[in-house]
Amino acid sequence: MSNKNKIGLYGCMYVMQHIISWIKFYFSDIPQIKRDIMNLMYIEFGWMGAIFLLILIYFPAKPPTPPSLSASTERVDFKKGLLNIFKHKRFWLVALPYGISTGVYGAWGSVLDVNLTPLNISQDEAGWLGFYSTLAGAVAGVVFARFADIFTGHMKLFLLIFMCGASASVAWFAVIVEKFIPFSSVELYASCILGGIFINGAIPMFMELCCEATYPIAEGVTSGLLTLLNNFFGGIFLLVLMIPKISTKWMNWALLGATLFSLPLLLAFRERYSRLHIDLKAASTNRDEGDSHVGVQCDKEHKR
Question: What secondary structure letter does DSSP report for 75?
Answer without folding.
Answer: P
